[in-house]
Amino acid sequence: MSAPVSDQELGEALLHSVQHGTFPQSESVSSAPVPAAALPRLRQTLEKARDDTKEEIRQISREAASDVDGWMTQARKLQADIKRSQETAKEIVQQAESGKEKTANVQDAATKVSFLHSEIAYNESLVQVVEQLQDISTLLEAAQDAAVHNHILHALERLEDADGAFKRLGPFENTRVVGLLKTRSGQLRSALVENVTETWHSLLLVNTAERKITLKDEIEREDGESGMKIDTLVEALTRLGLFDNFVVRLSHDFDSVIVQPRLAIGPDQVASALTIYGNDIQAAGQVSDMSVRATLEDIQSTAEYLSTRMPPDVAVPLSEKLVPVIANRLIANWLLPAIPLSTKGIPEFQETLSLVLGLVEFFDELGWSGQQRLTAWVDKSAEKWLARQKEAAIAQVQRIFPRRVQEKKTVERVETQVLSKGDAMLGGHEEHDEDWGADWGDEEAPAEEAANKAEKIQAEPVEEEDISAWGIDEDESQESQKEHEVPKAEAQGEEDAEDWGADWGDEEEQKQVLSQPTVQSSEPEPEPKANGQAAKSEKPPKDREMTLRETYTVTAIPDSIIDLILQAVTDVGTLTSPDLVGTAIAPASGGLYDIPSLLLAMYRATAATHYSRDIAANMLIYNDCTRLSDRLHAFIAERAEQDPSTDLPQHLKPSVRLKPRLEQDIKAIEGFGKRAYGREMESQRTIIRDHLDAAQGFASCTKMPFAAECDNAIAMTIDRISDVKNVWKPVLSHSALLQSLGSLVSTALAKFIADIEDMPDIAEDESKKLRGYCVSLSSLAALFITEDADGQQRDMTSVYTPNWFKFQYLSEILDSSLADIRYMWTDGELRLEMEVDEVLDLIRALFAESEYRRKAIADIRRVAGH
């Protein structure tokens, strides 16, 4: 416990707190209790401190008493000074008040003087205004008198003087009397406007009903005096600010009454004839000569009529409004239709352009304006002619396509290729070439490597085989084709569907599968070696020249397009001939090379519409694109041979100017055909997959109603492929038909194989049922029976259907024992068609768990190297 705190310490702590506001630093003091007995002591301490403070204050007051007396004396003096200042301020205020009164009197007097001066000035200005008003009244009377005597210009001068006088009135311009004078002036002006308007209509008579206009130079008055002339009238209208409006109105009237009837061609293909007699010009009757020359002559006669019967002050402003209208109507109704569609009409059109320039020169001689449109049109006549050729070409395409798409014909495609012995095409014709066979047998690669390679090829998804199977890559050289390219091509994926569309367009792409074309060798077959062996160095493979022929169906559209392209090229030569090279159209010759690309683009844009009514629309599009590509290639080659001997300038030769464009167009056309073919193939594949999807993976294929669905799926798939063959057979070439059908059959087999391999368990009755489905699908092989050159039938199913052997092995597996399956894998070629996991999964699904199954699986794994 802390030591007790004395009353003295508590008192000092309390005193310090009151005097200085401090808190005790000692913890014992600050936390000590204050008993009641300590209160007297605390009070005594506080009273003592108070008394000490009072005493201290008294002492300080006594010491500072003398200073306080001095402060009080100074305060009394300051108070006296303030009082004197207040009295002085009052005096100043009184003096200021008396000054204001005097200033107000002075200001009042000045205001009165200023008012008197302003009154005097106003009276003087009023006198001047009255005099001006009198002058204005005199001017108006003079103007009225001049108007009465038909002195229009004099009256206008007086009115103009009056208007100037009105402006000089200043503030009096808005007074009542001035308003009356202005009203009178306005009435005089209105009377003059009415007078000159009536005179204008009297000098320029427009009879809309009779389509006649009469132009006079002067109006004769009834009193025999000379009337107003048109020159005076023009000046009067100009001063009145009405001339431009009257000229615009006259140009409209002249256009509607004279120009439009003559230059517009009615529904009956006739125009009104112009007649000029005296001061009259009239559009009446029908023109007998509908040539451009006659029209230009009538325009020139009309211009001559206006220039001789109107002063230049009227004719020139009128031409600014009228000539552009004439030019527009002339171009739209006469010059544009006069553009020839063939080069035969160019000389006559050149003469027409000369006549137009002659009309422009005539306008220039008259000092007219607005004919620049005609000059510009002549300068651009080559562009106009070229645009007309393009429009005509497009119109012709739109006209002939719907008709020509219905005209079908069979065309033959002939290719000559140089093939080596290693090519697949020669494989079928050199079965007895022992040397070649020896070369094949001397391969150093072991059999296992070949088997692995075949397995790798067959491992490609069978859905991926496609139309590119019968075409080798475009960039491969003809001389470098090897026999192993056949399975490579057959394993191409579906994503290359469009690439096959270029098969006929590329010389390398028919080598593997054209079994039907006639093949002619340019060299005799070599004699076979007696021993069946030959070193490669002793007898290298010889190249052979082979001619391939096939027919396919196209419409008349490709040949029609080629005819139009040939016509455009012919026109280029015609325009550069000596007869036409100097014409205004000759510079457009190079632009004609745009027409082929335009036609081909038009074909691509509208083909889907034109072919849509044909059941084999996409295949026809593909064939037509192939035909177009072939003919364009032939055209390029032909022009490359002919151009060196032609007289065309180097920059206009088709092999120089047109070839790069056509090569791009050929790529576009081939791509378009590929896409059409790809769409058709994908559509058929989708239908086939949908048919097989109805079987629901062939699960429960022996139980109703699933069995009926499975049977129906197989039957519909077979029927669909057969129907497609019937549709495509009249259109596609034989090899293309087989390739396309092979792709569809491959799709069906791939779907069927995948469904069977996905079945986890296959009962014996299901196995037999699935085997029956395999037999049914095998009937599709009849689609691929062909005859060779010797008339012997050959089954080409395996060539066009890459997964055919795999499907056949699947069929055998479904009907085989474990020993048979093991034998097919170890001693047969099953491992070339199926992966080991596929075979093992099928064994597990077909056979129950047993020692025999485990042993068979182990043997298969051992042979596979797993």
What can you see in these coordinates?
The protein is of the alpha+beta class. It folds into 5 domains: 7-63; 68-207; 242-379, no CATH class; 408-650, no CATH class; 676-864, Tetracycline Repressor, domain 2 (Orthogonal Bundle). The chain has 31 helices and 10 strands. Strands 1-2-6-5 form a 4-stranded antiparallel sheet. A hairpin with a 2-residue loop joins strand 5 and strand 6 (280-286). The longest helix has 84 residues, at 65-148. It is flat and about 155 Å long. Residues 43-95 form a coiled coil.
Question: In brief, what are we looking at here?
Answer:
The protein has 31 helices and ten strands.
Distance between the termini: 95 Å
In terms of per-residue confidence, which ranges show pLDDT below 50 for 5 or more consecutive residues?
421-541
Mean pLDDT, to the nearest integer, reads: 79
Strand content: 5-15%
Rg estimate, integer Å: 58 Å
> What is the topology, as strand order, of the major beta sheet?
1-2-6-5
The coarse silhouette is flat
- Total count of strands: 10
| Biggest sheet layout | 4 strands, antiparallel
Q: What assembly state would you assign to the polypeptide chains in this entry?
A: single chain
What is the helix tally?
31
Q: Into which percent range does the helicity of residues fall?
A: 55-70%
> In terms of structural class, how would the helical and strand content be classed?
alpha+beta
The total domain count is 5
GO cellular component, one term: RZZ complex
Keywords: Coiled coil
GO biological process, one term: mitotic spindle assembly checkpoint signaling
Biased composition (Low complexity): 24-37
